[in-house]
C-alpha cells in the first residue's frame, strides 16, 4: 500500500527523471539487486552470429571458385544483408551496455537511457531492412534455378512484397514519433508530440513476415517434388530448402515474446527479449540464405560428409547454357573420375522428352560412377 501511494505521489508531483531517481534510491534502500537481463555478448546471440559468419564466408569462397554458380544479384544482396547483420549485433551489444535489459530506474547516468533509445531506433530500422534483403536474396537465387513460368511469377511477386514490407515499415518506424527525436527523448515526458503504438506496429510486421516465410518455404519444396529424382535426393534437397522453417519458428517465438512482455511501464527491461530474438532471427536469415552454396562447397571438398564417394564436381549449381558441353561427358569425367553433366542453372521442370528430362536433373545432387 505504501509503495502504491508513493508511486501515485511521484507520478503526480515529480518529473519522470525525478521519479526514476526516487525509485532507484528506494530500491537501494531496500537492498533490491540490480538486474541485468542479458550480458552484452550472450551465447544465445553469439553462436548464431558466428554460425552466420562462417556460412557467409563459405558462400563467398564457393562463389569465388564458381561452386554453386557464379556471382549474381542474390550474392550482392546477401552481402548487404550480412553487413546489416553485423550492425544489428553491434547495436544490440551497445544498447545493453547503455542499459537495455535493466530496470529503467537502474540506468545511470540517465543520459544513457537516451543513448540506448537512439541505438534502438537505428536497430529497428536496420532489422527491417535486413530481413527483407535476406528474403529477396533467396528469391533471386530461386530465379536462377527454377524456370517454371508460374513459379517465376510467384517469385517476382514475393520480391515485390518483401520490398514493399521493407519500405513500408522503415518509413513507419522512422516517423513513428513526430517530431522524430521523441523516439529517443520521449521517455523524459518533457516535450509534447505524437507517437503511434510501436508494439501494435511490430505485431503486424511480425505476422506479415511469418506469412511471407511460410509461402517462401513452400515455393521451392513444391518445385523439388516435381523433379525426376530418387526419393533420397528429393528429401536431401527438400530438407535444405525446408530449413527456412527455422526462420519461421524464430519469427513466431519473437511474436510470442513480444506479447508476453508489457513494455509500457518498464520498456528498457521488457523490450530487450524482443531485441534478443530479433538478433537471432537476423542471423538465422543469413544462415538459411547461405545453405545452398555451403552445400556445394562441402560436396566439392568433403563429399563423404553428405554420403558421396569419390571426387565431387561443383557440388551445386551451374551457370552453363541450356546445351550440353561440346567436349562431351567423357572429357569432363576423365579429369575428375566421375560422370559429370553440364547442367543448366535454370531448370525446366515441364520438359517431357527423355533428353530434357535427363537435363532437368537438379545439380543439387550429383551423378557418380554411373549411379543416380
UniProtKB/TrEMBL annotation:
Tell me where the transmembrane regions lie.
Answer: 38-58, 79-100, 120-143, 150-172, 207-225, 237-257, 277-298
Residues in Rhodopsin domain copies: 59-298
Q: Does the keyword Transport apply?
A: no
> Its domain of life?
Eukaryota
Q: Give the residue range of the signal peptide.
A: none
**Per UniProt, which keywords does this protein have?**
Membrane, Transmembrane, Transmembrane helix
Q: How does it sit in the membrane?
A: Multi-pass membrane protein
Where in the cell does this protein reside?
A: Membrane
Checking Pfam families in the record gives:
Fung_rhodopsin (PF20684)
**Record keywords: Cell wall biogenesis/degradation included?**
no
Q: List the GO cellular component terms.
A: membrane
Database matches in InterPro entries: Rhodopsin_dom_fungi, SAT4-like
Q: Which PANTHER family match?
A: INTEGRAL MEMBRANE PROTEIN-RELATED, PTH11-LIKE INTEGRAL MEMBRANE PROTEIN (AFU_ORTHOLOGUE AFUA_5G11245)
| Annotated family | Belongs to the SAT4 family.
Q: What is this protein called?
A: Rhodopsin domain-containing protein
Amino acid at each position: 500500500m505504501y509503495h502504491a501511494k508513493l508511486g501515485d505521489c511521484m507520478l503526480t508531483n515529480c518529473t519522470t527523471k525525478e521519479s526514476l531517481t526516487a525509485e532507484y534510491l528506494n530500491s537501494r534502500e531496500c537492498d533490491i539487486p540490480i538486474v541485468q537481463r542479458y550480458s552484452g555478448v550472450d551465447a544465445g546471440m553469439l553462436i548464431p552470429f558466428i554460425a552466420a559468419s562462417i556460412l557467409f564466408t563459405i558462400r563467398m569462397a564457393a562463389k569465388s571458385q564458381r561452386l554453386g554458380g557464379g556471382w549474381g544479384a542474390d550474392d550482392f544482396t546477401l552481402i548487404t544483408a550480412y553487413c546489416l547483420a553485423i550492425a544489428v549485433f553491434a547495436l544490440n551489444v551497445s544498447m545493453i551496455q547503455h542499459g537495455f535489459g535493466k530496470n529503467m530506474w537502474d540506468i545511470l547516468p540517465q543520459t544513457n537511457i537516451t543513448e540506448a533509445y537512439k541505438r534502438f531506433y537505428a536497430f529497428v530500422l536496420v532489422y527491417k531492412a535486413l530481413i527483407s534483403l535476406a528474403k529477396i536474396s533467396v528469391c533471386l537465387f530461386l530465379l536462377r534455378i527454377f524456370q517454371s513460368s508460374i513459379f517465376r511469377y510467384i517469385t517476382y511477386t514475393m520480391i515485390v512484397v518483401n520490398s514493399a514490407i521493407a519500405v513500408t515499415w522503415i518509413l513507419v518506424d522512422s516517423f513513428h514519433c513526430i517530431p522524430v527525436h521523441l523516439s529517443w527523448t520521449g521517455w523524459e515526458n518533457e516535450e509534447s508530440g505524437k507517437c503511434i503504438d510501436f508494439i501494435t506496429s511490430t505485431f503486424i510486421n511480425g505476422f506479415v513476415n511469418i506469412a511471407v516465410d511460410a509461402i517462401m518455404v513452400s515455393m521451392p519444396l513444391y518445385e523439388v517434388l516435381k523433379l525426376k529424382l530418387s526419393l533420397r535426393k528429393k528429401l536431401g534437397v527438400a530438407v535444405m530448402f525446408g530449413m527456412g522453417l527455422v526462420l519461421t519458428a524464430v519469427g513466431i517465438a519473437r511474436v510470442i515474446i513480444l506479447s508476453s512482455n508489457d513494455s509500457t511501464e518498464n520498456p528498457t527491461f521488457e523490450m530487450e527479449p524482443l531485441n534478443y530474438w530479433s538478433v537471432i532471427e537476423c542471423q538465422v536469415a543469413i544462415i538459411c540464405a547461405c545453405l545452398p552454396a555451403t552445400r556445394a562447397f562441402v560436396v566439392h571438398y568433403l563429399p563423404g560428409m553428405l554420403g558421396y564417394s569419390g571426387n565431387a564436381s561443383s557440388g551445386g549449381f551451374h551457370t552453363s547454357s541450356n546445351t550440353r558441353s561440346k567436349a562431351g561427358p567423357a572429357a569432363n569425367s576423365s579429369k575428375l573420375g566421375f560422370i559429370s553433366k553440364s547442367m543448366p542453372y535454370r531448370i525446366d521442370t515441364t520438359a517431357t522428352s527423355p533428353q530434357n528430362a535427363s537435363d532437368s536433373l537438379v545439380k543439387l545432387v550429383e551423378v557418380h560412377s554411373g549411379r543416380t
